[in-house]
Each structure stands twice: as structure tokens, then as C-alpha cells.
Specification:
Elements lengths: L2 H11 L4 E4 L6 H9 L4 E4 L3 H15 L3 E5 L3 H4 L2 H9 L4 E7 L21 H5 L5 E4 L6 H13 L5 E7 H4 L15 H8 L6 H13 L3 E5 L2 H4 L3 H11 L3 E3 L14 E4 L6 H9 L2 E5 L5 H4 L11 E6 L13 E4 L2 H12 L7 H13 L14 H10 L5 E5 L3 H9 L7 E3 L10 H11 L4 E7 L9 H7 L5 E6 L4 H10 L16 H7 L3 E5 L8 H6 L4 E6 L25 H6 L4 E2 L2 E2 L4
Parallel strand pairs: 1-2, 1-3, 3-4, 4-6, 5-6, 7-8, 7-10, 8-9, 10-11, 11-12, 13-14, 13-15, 15-16, 16-18, 17-18
Antiparallel strand pairs: 19-20
Helix pairs in contact: 1-2, 3-5, 3-19, 10-15, 12-15, 13-16, 17-18
């Protein structure tokens, strides 16, 4: 059979259903084979970066590998941002790139380029992939595809890239004679490196939890990647431990659960940050504890707490903060052992949970900041979340809009929130919505972005139209790059170069018309009543939400201060009453 036909058969056999990409001269054979495979559907974006983001969102929602297919040269280099995004957020993706014929690939590294669009994409992406290879022997196609997919999913997930020259794609192969990676010594050695969980460490962790008065469970994005949500809920139900989440872990625990404390971090909810500041024990699962979670000065993070860190990647353990116990483990395996230890012995933290509830009520992120009819973005996004279907996928972009969504959208267990976390790439939301739709066409697709982010991958509005995707595209328009504008105002004497000065936005109503999409304007609080109607229809729609040109993201980090001491700063007496509340055998009220 033709090798390109085998590649597509391989992908359909591992239950990939959609492949994203953009046509090009070096992949015409692969795409021809794709169309001939009845189990596969090709989705053509209008930029390869968007294809990478769509594939990544597809992987997050399906739990399977996401696939993007692009041509060589600029097609492949356009993938790089998307590859980095899936690498830093640990999402399993297979990026397939065409390449010049093997006889036209340079053999002397002193030569810059031997043939048209020839680009050594493998070397370019080595630092942001788990595995990358150019296939030069047709007989090894099965081996390399199996190895790539295995490595993408095994351990801490991540992207892989397989580069296939044109003459390799067209080669004739015999499927029955292809050598399997799973029959190789290399696979056996990789299996031998997998270590079983240390049950004694889990017992010691549960003992620390039992001895604590103010414990927390910190849930990161790794929980979703490991499909550990049900076990997390079971563990919380048995132990009664309160939960805070990272940005990437926000959709891994239901926000209507009474044990949910909020989103921690530099832009996190005050309730979550005060909980971390007062905790005497924190069990961290699936989170790498990056500086946006701990604050700039890690010495001020959770100073009263014994920290136990569980992660599949040993390189993340003992890296950010001192840890009482560090456990390398798959999260599912850890919680199965932990639950078998605690069984039905409920741990009592009612006073601690009541204290956290006081913080949640005292410091919500979404009260209206005015009574003049203007739109407060936190209030708007909170109300939006209350009107969403239970089966909704929210794709947020990067900037102020991302933090407003994280601070104020309340999620049920069936809802998903997709973010560009580690890389923080503007332009993520729209193509992520496309990938999410093809992963789950029954879901309500919500894309939230700023007036800057929409312009990063604006061409994907044509994909939305072409594929009749009923996405609701919310553009939070403050006529600026708000996050950077805020930095300029605070630290550059208002010299807003590039964030306001020399920055502009198009007429979004005309943009919607140009792409054949419906358009809705929300410019006052009175317009909130439009939400129920537009969220119920199955129409592709741009919703422009006009917010203040001086909009801010509060609470926000205060340079040099602890994570919980956010701006705008609380009165010092009030702040002090929120610290050291975990005393004796119970928790004192701060009011």
C-alpha cells in the first residue's frame, strides 16, 4: 500500500477522527489519503498556528491525541507557537509535517538550504517536543508513528513531531512486514523505567492530613490530563479537605461544591490566597507551582504549611518550594492508594471551611464596581457563566480577559475551561474553540477574548463560517492591550506605547458582516438581558462587549509582597485579621 494511506489508517485505528491543517505542496499525498479514509475528517484552518491550537484543544477534550498536518518550510515553522503551547501545558499532540524529497535534503550543515522550502523543522522543535524525527526509511513508518504516539501520551504528556519527505509518502510498503515499536527492546527498556508508587509515602501523607487543622488540596491541570476528576471528588467527599485550583486546574473540580475555595495565584481569588496563607498542610497534585501560583517571592508562600507534592514528572518535585514529601506518581494511582487508606474515616474541617466561606463572601471577584450602567467585566463574565449550558466549553484567550474568566466564571463538573497556560499565547481562544467543537459537537462553544487577541488569529472566523460552528465569540473591547496598558500606567508614567498609542481595533460589526456572522453589541448592563436569547440559538455569532478604556484586573499582584497581599491593598488592620487564623484545635473567626 501507499505509505501516506498507511499513515491515515494508523491514525484512524487509534480513533483519531479529525485532523487539522493547511494544504501545501509537500503534503498533497497525505491529504489525498486522508480524504480517502472514511473514518477521518479533515478540517482546514487558514493558518498553521491555528491548526496547532485546534489540535491541542481537540486533545484536551477527547483525551486522545490531537493531530495537525502541515507543509514544509513556512507551514512547519508556523506550527512552532502551537507546539510550544502544547509542550508547556503537557498536551499530547502529533504534528505531521511534509518535507522535501530525501534526495533534496541537505547533507552538509554548512549549507543553509538545498531545495525550495527545505527547513530542518526537527532541529527547530527539539527543545519543545518530547520526540521529533524525519523519516527516511519507509519500512520504519509503523515503528516511528507508534513510538511518537506512545511518547506523546506516556508519563507527562506532550507534543511530538514526525517529518515525512514527499518520496517517503509515496513509497509502496507491505503493512504485514512493518516492524512494531512495541516489539522492540527500546519499548521494554522504557517500561522498565516506570516506577510503582511508594505506598509508604502515601501513608505518611495521609497521616499529615489527619494531624492538620487547616489543610488544602491544590488541584492543577495535571488532574484533567490524568482523568482524575472523579477520584478527586471521592477523596474530598471522604476527607472533607477544602480545594483550591490553579489556572489550568479550574475545570477539574466543580465550583458549586462547598469545599471549593477558589482560584489561587497572583491574579487569584482573595479567598483562595488567604486559605493558602493560613493552611498548615497543602497536598499539591498535578501542578508545577510556577511563580504565578506562588508569587514572586516564594519564601513568602504558604509559610505555615507542610507541602506534599505529587507529580508524574520528577523534575517538577522539590523545584519551586520546600516539600515535606515528594511523590512521583500518576495521579490516579496516588488517589486510589490514598482513598484505600482513609476509607470512610471522615476528617473534620468544618470550622476551617466556614472560615473560607467567610472569605468567599467577604471578597467576591464579581461585584459591580459601579451603579451607572457601565459594564464591569468580572460581573459580566460571572453572569455569563450562570447562563451557560451545563455542557459548555469556554475557551479563554490571554490578557485581562483570561484573568477575568478565571476569577469570576463559576464552572460545574461537566463544563470545561481551556487556557493557554504556560506559554500564554494571544490568539489561542478562537482556534481552540474550533478544535473543541470537533471534539464534542454537542457542547456549547464559548470563546472569550480581548480586542487584541481576536486580531491574532482573526482569519479563523472563516473556519467558523465554513464549518458552520455555532460558537459564541465574546470580544471584551477596551480599545487597548489592557494588561500591558495597566503596566504602562503604573510603571511608565502612562507612556502607553503599543498598548494604546499606535494600537487600534477594527469595526467588529463590519467584521462580522464580512465573514457572514451574526453580530450582537453589549454596551450597558441593560444589555445583559440579551444573553439568554443569543446563548440558546445555534448560530455563529460575534458578541462585542464594550468595557471601560481604563479597565483593570483586580485583585492583582503587588510587587515585593506575599501572594495574599494583593492590590488594591486592604486596610492593614483588616489584612492582619486575615492572617494566622488557624489556631489551637479550631479556627477563629476574623469578624
Amino acid at each position: 500500500m501507499k505509505l501516506s494511506d498507511y499513515v491515515m489508517k494508523f491514525l484512524s485505528d487509534i480513533e483519531v477522527k479529525n485532523i487539522f491543517g493547511f494544504q501545501g505542496g509537500s503534503i498533497v499525498h497525505l491529504i489525498d489519503s486522508l480524504y480517502k479514509n472514511p473514518k477521518l475528517v479533515y478540517v482546514q484552518n487558514y493558518h498553521e498556528q491555528a491548526s496547532a491550537f485546534s489540535a491541542e484543544a481537540y486533545a484536551r477534550i477527547t483525551g486522545n491525541i490531537g493531530v495537525a498536518l502541515v507543509s514544509n518550510g513556512p507551514g512547519a515553522t508556523n506550527l512552532v507557537t502551537g507546539i510550544a503551547n502544547s509542550y508547556f501545558d503537557s498536551v499530547p499532540c502529533l504534528y505531521l509535517a511534509g518535507q522535501a524529497n530525501t534526495y533534496a535534503i541537505k547533507t552538509n550543515n554548512d549549507i543553509r538550504q538545498q531545495s525550495f522550502q527545505e527547513t530542518d523543522i526537527v532541529t527547530i522543535v527539539k527543545s519543545i517536543t518530547k520526540y521529533a524525527i524525519t523519516i527516511k526509511d519507509p519500512s520504519k513508518i509503523r515503528f516511528y508513528l507508534e513510538k511518537a504516539v506512545y511518547l506523546a501520551k506516556e508519563g507527562r504528556p506532550g507534543p511530538v513531531l514526525v517529518d515525512i519527505p514527499i518520496d517517503i509518502q509515496t513509497a509502496n510498503i507491505s503493512e504485514d512486514t512493518l516492524y512494531s515499536f512495541f516489539d522492540s527492546e527500546e519499548f521494554v527498556k522504557l517500561q522498565q523505567k516506570i516506577k510503582p508508587i511508594n505506598s509508604q509515602q502515601v501513608k505518611e501523607t495521609m497521616q499529615l492530613l489527619k494531624e492538620s487543622k487547616c489543610p488544602l488540596l491544590l488541584v492543577g491541570g495535571g488532574v484533567r490530563l490524568a482523568d482524575g476528576m472523579k477520584l478527586i471528588q471521592d477523596f474530598v467527599s471522604i476527607t472533607g479537605v477544602p480545594v483550591v485550583t490553579s489556572l489550568m486546574g479550574l475545570d477539574a473540580f466543580p465550583h458549586d461544591n462547598p469545599n471549593f475555595c477558589g482560584f489561587l495565584g497572583s491574579y487569584g481569588n482573595r479567598s483562595a490566597n488567604f486559605a493558602v496563607a493560613n493552611a498548615d498542610f497543602i497536598l499539591v497534585v498535578g501542578s508545577r507551582l510556577d511563580p504565578r501560583q506562588t508569587g514572586g517571592n516564594v519564601k513568602l508562600f504558604a509559610t505555615h504549611a507542610k507541602i506534599v507534592h505529587v507529580d508524574i514528572d520528577p523534575n517538577e518535585l522539590m523545584r519551586a518550594v520546600p516539600e515535606a514529601i515528594s511523590i512521583q506518581s500518576n495521579l490516579k494511582e496516588f488517589f486510589k492508594v490514598a482513598i484505600s487508606i482513609v476509607k470512610e474515616n471522615h476528617y473534620l474541617y468544618s470550622a476551617w471551611i466556614e472560615q473560607i466561606e467567610e472569605w468567599k463572601n467577604k471578597y467576591p471577584s464579581y461585584p459591580s464596581q459601579n451603579d451607572k450602567g457601565y459594564i464591569d467585566p468580572n460581573e459580566f463574565l460571572h453572569i455569563l457563566s450562570q447562563n451557560l449550558n451545563h455542557h459548555a466549553i469556554i475557551c479563554s484567550d490571554v490578557g485581562q480577559n483570561q484573568m477575568w474568566v478565571a476569577q469570576s466564571c463559576l464552572l460545574t463538573i461537566q463544563q470545561r475551561l481551556l487556557n493557554s497556560g504556560g506559554l500564554g499565547s494571544m490568539g489561542y481562544s478562537l482556534p481552540a474553540g474550533i478544535g473543541a467543537y470537533f471534539a464534542d459537537q454537542d457542547a456549547q462553544i464559548i470563546c472569550v477574548m480581548g480586542d487584541g487577541g481576536i486580531q491574532m488569529n482573526i482569519q479563523e472566523l472563516q473556519t467558523i463560517k465554513k464549518e458552520n460552528i455555532p460558537a459564541k465569540i465574546f470580544i471584551m473591547n477596551n480599545h487597548s492591550l489592557g494588561m500591558i496598558r495597566s503596566v504602562h500606567e503604573k510603571y511608565f508614567n502612562g507612556a502607553c506605547y503599543g498598548s494604546v498609542i499606535d494600537y487600534s481595533v477594527p469595526d467588529f460589526s463590519k467584521l462580522a458582516e464580512a465573514y457572514g456572522l451574526e453580530y450582537t453589541l453589549i454596551e450597558t448592563k441593560n444589555d445583559f438581558s440579551k444573553l439568554k436569547t443569543i446563548l440558546c440559538d445555534k448560530i455563529s455569532r460575534i458578541i462585542e462587549v464594550i468595557i471601560s478604556d481604563s479597565s483593570q484586573t483586580y485583585p492583582e499582584p503587588t510587587p515585593g509582597r506575599a501572594l495574599e497581599d494583593q492590590s488594591p491593598l486592604l486596610d492593614r488592620d483588616e489584612f492582619d485579621r486575615n492572617i494566622d487564623v488557624c489556631v489551637g484545635r479550631g479556627v477563629k473567626s476574623i469578624y
